[in-house]
Amino acid sequence: MDISDYFWNASLEELKRGYIQESDSYICLLCGENIEKGIIYPHEGILYEAKRYMRIHIESTHQSVFKYLIGLDKKLTGLTDHQNHLLHLFYQGKSDKEVQGEMGIGSASTIRHHRFALKEKERQAKTFLAIMELLKEKDQCAPAFIPPHKTAKMVDDRYAVTEKEQQETIKKFLPEGLSGRLKKFPPKEKQRLIVLREITKRFESNVIYTEKEMNQLLNEISDDYVIIRRYLIEYGFLDRKSDGSQYWLKK
């Protein structure tokens, strides 16, 4: 299962702690790191069992689940830049007066008003979540949508992809499957998104590819490998060093 699928299928409690528990391992919802149970892991001269090591992994790699989640695209969090900044400061334990001084807005009472507005947003989110959960029990006609990858740079109508659309598009442009070549690069953005997501399955997570290695992999898929590489970066599937010497899957 793709890490984005794990992420969007996780419960609220699992999202808060940043990992899920499988029968034989713990999987980080933020990057896909798999920590096998029954193994002792060393960290800075101390040995840890798997569950504790997963928490250390999150702290050392992502700093905190809060920092990771709040850094997601605003279309995924529903937060404005202003709200995002406020939440950062609140999470740091700053008082209303300190927040007001740092942001240079209004007064301490202004910050209290923002706190109230955020609590109102929380209540609305809980109500909406309950409504959608109840709707699932009754709406038998709703199509099954593919969740967006959580490294998407801009979530819009292109991401309204159903499972049926995904299957049809992959069959049309990758008729021989993942191991085959791309018939042609899709002309429509939604189709590109589907195909690009499928292409990323050829890459290994936690592997850094040189530019030559990346080009060789993509050339096995299509002669237009430069265009594919550019769109993989544009859509937030790949990241690279500024000089283009190294590439890796974004998590």
Could you explain the architecture of this structure?
The protein has 251 residues and is mainly α. It folds into 3 domains: 3-69, no CATH class; 73-138, Arc Repressor Mutant, subunit A (Orthogonal Bundle), CATH 1.10.10; 157-249, Arc Repressor Mutant, subunit A. The chain has 12 helices and 8 strands. The strands form 3 sheets. A 3-stranded antiparallel sheet has the order 1-2-3. Helix 9 (163-173) packs across helix 10 (189-199). The model has no long low-confidence stretch (mean pLDDT 91).
What are the defining features of this structure?
three-stranded antiparallel sheet; 12 helices; mainly alpha; 51% helix; 251 residues; Arc Repressor Mutant, subunit A
Could you write a compact summary of the structure shown?
The protein has helices at 3-9, 12-17, 50-62, 65-70, 74-77, 81-91, 96-103, 108-138, 163-173, 189-199, 211-219, 225-234, and strands spanning 19-21, 25-28, 34-36, 41-43, 46-48, 209-210, 238-240, 246-249. With 251 residues, it is mostly helical.
Q: Topology of this structure?
A:
Elements: H1 3-9, H2 12-17, E1 19-21, E2 25-28, E3 34-36, E4 41-43, E5 46-48, H3 50-62, H4 65-70, H5 74-77, H6 81-91, H7 96-103, H8 108-138, H9 163-173, H10 189-199, E6 209-210, H11 211-219, H12 225-234, E7 238-240, E8 246-249
Antiparallel strand pairs: 1-2, 2-3, 4-5, 6-8, 7-8
Helix pairs in contact: 7-8, 9-10, 11-12
